[in-house]
Amino acid sequence: MRLVIFPLTDYANQLKIDFSSIFSLIYPFDVVETSEYFLIVKKKDLDNVYFQINLEHHAKIWNNNKNPIIVVSKFTTNTYPNLYKLIYFENHGEAWGDPNQNYDKFYKVLTSASNPELPPNTYGEPLLHFTRNFYFYGFHFNPPLYDFTLKYDGNIPNCMVYSGRLDSQQPSKAGYRTEFIKELKQKYPQHIFPKIKTEDFKKCNLNGINEDFKNNGWYWDFNKSHSFLVFETADINDRINHFYSEKTFRALMSGNMIILGISTPRHKQLIDAGFWTPTNEVIDKSEDAEELLFETFEYLNKEGFYIIKSKNIEKIKNNQRILYDWFYKDQPFKTKAIEWILEDDNR
Prior knowledge:
With 347 residues, this protein is α/β, with parallel strands linked by helices.
């Protein structure tokens, strides 16, 4: 029997106990045994492999298994001796980089980034960040958003910007976005407007509190225009940090038409996965991410934001369905990551 243990995780000041990394990787599963200390689960397609999800810090090892694999993350309190095989699951952050951990003590590293030059014994799967965010933001509590119908009375803008302000002076966080937004605003002044975050949005945003991560404040905000412009954390031309943060996840989950400021390889990866954004219609016009963004706006400006959105509303809803299926159903990208964890392990 092989046993994979997930120690209890305290997610700093955002969630008291965070199971999102665990569920992002192994859900769906069958429950084998429950106690006040742990939850033992099993996946149907993996014979003689069990997963222990700890519910308290000092949980004993199930059935006194002698050689478990311990999967830890940045916020894990690992109470097991380091004589066991430790895998570091880097699925908490924004970009590929040193997680302030000593890699030498880890047997393997599983990351939600996809660096083209991953270190040895490291496996990258950026789609795990989508399934992680699905759980982290409470969508397993919500009814399917693709069944929602939301309409605002009166005229609404053609496009709002996720960044909120159009004149941000935070170079460490939003410098490159600010310049892009200024250029777009200058060329298309009738289309670009800032988004003012409501109090409901702030409650469920990663704001150091997450006091109500199950409300839909972000959803109402995202649908106050015919489309939304969303930039990722990494620079639009960054081809090293191949990752998706909550920005892309929320955008695709919103049910609105989304214009993404991401690198061209990331666009193509989303297209291959079945997602639709208006950039799909111009993806062959340029390999340059900046040019591609302007081509997208030119296309929408010429054809009409509302017209393009109306024609593709089912494709937009399908973006939401894809994310639901990725979490609730077995998927090859999750199965391959689990199999990689179990590789070279003959116990």
